[in-house]
Amino acid sequence: MEVLLGADIIDWFAEEARRSYGRTIPSRSGAVQQVVIREPVGPVAAFTPWNFPNAMITRKAGPALAAGCTCVLKPSENTPVTTLWLAEMMQQHLPEGAFNVVLGKGETGEALVRNRGVNVVLFTGSWDVGSHIQQVSSTFHDRIVAAALARIQSEQEREEDRRTLIADVLTLESRISDWLAAEDAVLATLARTLPAIVDEASLLR
User: Fold this and answer.
1) pLDDT tens-digit series, residues 167-196
2) What does pTM read for this prediction?
3) How far apart are CA 62 and CA 98, in angstroms?
4) Which of 60, 55, 79 is nearest to 71 (CA)?
5) Which of 10, 114, 137, 162 is deepest in the core (most CB within 10 A)?
6) Are the beta carbons of 166 and 155 closer than 8 angstroms?
7) Nearest-angstrom CA–CA distance, 36 and 195
8) In whole angstroms, what is the distance from residue 124 CA to residue 84 CA?
9) Rounded to 5, what percent of the chain is helix, strand, coil?
10) Residue 97 region by backbone torsions, left for phi larger than 0, else alpha for psi between -120 and 50, else beta
């Protein structure tokens, strides 16, 4: 039953991949065109537990691959055979390097999460391990914020060239807010790129 469930999940996401196009949003101004473009977020690290080893893999690898992302999967060390069997089948039909498997215990998973080439972490498992992964993955914050600030600055300069006024609203996870508050250089960048009316206290709250 679980093998059939896994196959159904892959079929569903394979069909969704056909509909991963963007969309055009109607604008109130005929001179403005608003377009949404969907792009892969990059390499995905996925962790699956010992129970439902087939379905859990397809639920994580399916959407990642359908979105155009490569996937590195670490299964539970208690049930690696199903993963290797599924990987062998998938690699017969996918581009080289699209789906990858690493085996090992906790230190292997931690090395995978800490890898700076990984952009997304998917996890199903115990609360303790999940909390640890969240703490380890917080090392992503510096590059995520740096990329966001670069994008904000680019958009601000582009809009300023058109002599229009824009208002930027940032919603930040609390630990990122704390990190920003401790970084004078980052605040200075924000002050340059965001409208002067933005109150720093409300931004970082």
Assistant:
1) 444 445 555 555 555 555 555 555 554 444
2) 0.64
3) 11
4) 60
5) 10
6) yes
7) 25
8) 18
9) 55, 10, 35
10) left
> Distance between CA 118 and CA 114 in Å, rounded?
8
Pairwise CA distance, residues 40 & 154, whole Å: 21
Residue 74 has what DSSP assignment? E
- Check residue 31 and report its DSSP letter: T
What tokens does 115 get? 């890898």
CA dihedral 82→54→125→129, nearest 10 degrees, is 40
The mean pLDDT of 70-93, rounded to a whole number, is 89
Residue 23 in 3-state DSSP?
Answer: strand
> For residue 55, what are the contacts with CB-CB under 8 A and spacing of at least 6?
2, 5, 6, 9
Contact between residue 167 and residue 152 where contact means Cβ atoms under 8 Å apart: no
